[in-house]
Amino acid sequence: MRDANRLGVALAGIFVMLLSGCNGDPAAAPVSAPIDGRIKLSLDLLDLANQRIDPFQTTNAKATVFIFLSTDCPISNRYAPEVQRLHAEFAPQGIKFWLIYPNHDDSSEVIRKHIQDYNYSIEPLRDPQHTLVRATKARVTPEVVVYGTEGRKVYQGRIDDRNVDFGKERPQPSRRDLNEVLDAVVNGRTVTNVFTTPVGCYIPEAP
Description:
Helix content: 10-25%
Number of strands: 13
Number of helices: 6
Strand content: 15-25%
Order of helices and strands: HEEEEHHEHEHEEEEEHEE
Distance between the termini: 23 Å
């Protein structure tokens, strides 16, 4: 199965792969660290009809949320209800959500089935050339990146802290990081640059 070859723990900093597949021993980093300012808009993202899409085309959005997913990552798939809850709460308040599928093996047909199986109502995009992966330095699925107005990154990392480590999961999260960030955005509070450590499946060939 591809899961066994791709599951791993994402930690910020320098990733050192000791064995092929999911066996990694990444170096730890602080949970809060400075992150990039503005994204460089040289992206090659495709919708499921293979049409190129500009994800920042919604100019009146208070924030744009990219959620990196893969169809066969069990950690990613377990977050589907929470992702849908966040979308239902914050999309009507001016937050634009995108599902980003960076894995080459996730074809348009596979993604359509995945969206149907997990009841997603968020627009999906494919990133087969990893242009958004490189721009954001995303490493795993699930991982979220939030850009505020003027294309400035305000958050990157986990959805919440339910997954403590690979194979270690809380019954309920003690902190809902993405919810907190979006709540601050829609209520006009300042969001400082924040990076949290995501736990999930490595994106193949991620930088």
